[in-house]
Amino acid sequence: MKRVVIVPDGVADWPLKELGHKTPLEVAEKPNLDRLSQTSILGTLKTCPDGMYPGSDVCGLSLMGYEPGSVYTGRAPLEAANMNLVLKPDELVFRCNLVTEKDGVLADYSADHVSTEEARVLIQALEQRLGSATISFHAGKMYRHIMRYKYGDDLHVETDPPHDFQGDRYEAHWPKGKGAEILIALTERSREILRNHPVNRKRGKEGKKPANMIWLWGGGRAPTIEPFQKKFGISGGVISAVDLLNGLGRCLGWEIISVPGATGYFDTDYRAKGEYAVTALGRLDLVFVHVEATDEAGHTGNIKEKVRAIENLDRDIVGPVLEDLKKLAEWRVFVAPDHYTPIEKKTHVAEPVPFIFGASDLRGRGSGLSYTEANARRMGIHLERGSELMNRLVNGWPVQSV
Q1: Residue 193: enclosing H or E segment and its boundaries?
Q2: Which domain holds residue 153?
């Protein structure tokens, strides 16, 4: 039995006036997803437990078959795991975004999607100036990085994700709680260091926004998570260009499948991701394929790129994977975003997401409907626990439940 999970991050959306009051899923040309939906179970899934933030960390854990309320300790530790940062029990890590600040306003949560190469130079400058026996900075990819703090008991703070308040005055979103002044001071000093850095001067000449400040958020300690093979009895692997999803995979003991050309942005190589997914199925029981571009389009309010990302995903990932599965006697697949990222809101929303559950043994239990948010709700099939979809992918869909 081979199993595949396909996660178009944040693809679920609300109807848009610009699209004739339809969603990107409703207008995108996606024949493979629609055929799968028509012959599969279609429904909605609650990926975010009550009281938790609907981030890809929390919702990703749900899709991977785990209860976030039991194992989640913060976003940054999951990303740190993919960077091979081994945390001691008393250490904390925080996500460290490179952002654009202008006149006290957070102008861009991603610093115009600063390149990984430029970011490494800037993070190195921060480490040289701000690093100490207590604090260290570690470069990740593009705008996503890590700050490690040695004495975890010094800090107990609440932080806001920068993609939630782009366009607002950032001082209204300063960290709150014990030790908040430490993070605020680091943020203010980063502005002094980065403002006139040669990398940013060069970016200015090129008409790009500067990466002139950091934003620290999503802190936590190292989690303890039961390995996937021990929990479910099968092997797994993850394909993603995002440290967070790869970090989750490492915590689960999955193989991290690195795909050349996978960027986590609009220019990602969808075809390579599809090819690598098919190849990985030859040696693994389960492959988890994550696409970030749909979420980035939601955060930036880019309708055209969200539709294009859906169509690219459908053609270059869903199509080849389904063709490969058809050659097998037994297979199961589900498609689901981790959360909504509506174009109108430009951030995550904790609504039940639309899912497709297909399998070689469903036999006539298909929805007959295309894959859209409205059709998923119309079917009346709802899973209240996000982890349940993975349970059913591993063990099968109960006959009596449809």
Answers
A1: helix 180-194
A2: 82-220
